[in-house]
Write a structure and sequence with these properties.
Pfam family, one: HLH
Domain BHLH: 110-162
Largest sheet: 3 strands, antiparallel
Protein name: BHLH domain-containing protein
Structural class: mainly alpha
Shape: elongated
Number of helices: 7
Strand order of the largest sheet: 1-3-2
Organism: Ameca splendens
Distance between the termini: 77 Å
DNA sequence: TAGGCCATCTGGTCCT
DNA sequence: AGGACCAGATGGCCTA
């Protein structure tokens, strides 16, 4: 019999199981510590990360090992760890709800954790690109930070406007002034003519 | 309090 | 095989 280390449910009623996968403390200065942490992780792969001490506690104990089985075929059959209370009189429905179980061992835990770190790093690079993009779209001085979706939409509109100005060969400021003066009557196909962008145009320094 | 936005985790898929 | 990428789920924070 294989060494079944630990089981956990993906059932809706298994909330207590997921409670251990709590989110990282949002006040944690993640960005500044990530790089040094990544280096630490590379130097000491397999060890628990600092997140374990910040509320991102793993459901697995240190002794758990590889993902050896994904038992979705025979709920309740041979999936209970020794001493893990698998009630013999468990109702059939409850047994069915326990169908999706994972047997988890160390390498899976380590791989999953490493993947989480890579994913966070990837998202950080995406976010830094968004920050860079925010610096290149017109915003109001008093405006709060643009959301990601607003940043993308505004960038699209702004690029379209710049392209039109280039194609027209006109002076940018006079082009904008003319457009605003005419209420964009002649710009029915101007995809940049969004309320967001037009409102910001007055803040652009064209000199 | 509901909805928007976001970070994170996760498993699946694709790529090298 | 391992990493990159992606989308869904979840929960926290903030604001109207």
């Amino acid at each position: 019999m294989e060494d079944i280390g630990l089981l956990f449910d993906f059932d809706q009623d298994g909330s207590t199981d997921f409670a251990f996968w709590g989110q990282m403390d949002q006040n944690f200065h993640f960005q500044t510590q990530l790089e040094s942490f990544l280096m630490d992780c590379q130097a000491a792969s397999g060890q628990l990360s600092p997140w374990s001490t910040f509320g991102c506690q793993s459901v697995f104990s240190d002794s758990q090992l590889t993902l050896t089985d994904l038992d979705v075929q025979s709920p309740g059959l041979g999936v209970c760890a020794e001493g893990e209370g698998c009630p013999a009189d468990e109702p059939l429905e409850a047994a069915k709800r326990r169908a999706r179980r994972l047997v988890v061992h160390q390498p899976y835990k380590v791989q999953r954790h490493a993947a989480n770190i890579r994913e966070r790093k990837r998202m950080l690079s995406i976010n830094s690109a968004f920050e860079e993009l925010r610096c290149h779209v017109p915003t109001f001085p008093y405006e709060k930070r643009l959301s990601k979706i607003d940043t993308l939409r505004l960038a699209i509109a702004y690029i379209a406007l710049l392209r039109e100005i280039l194609m027209s060969g006109a002076d940018p400021k006079s082009y904008i002034d003319e457009c605003m003066k005419n209420g964009y009557k002649n710009q029915s196909d101007a995809i940049w003519n969004t309320s967001d962008l037009t409102a910001r145009l007055s803040w652009i320094k064209w000199d």
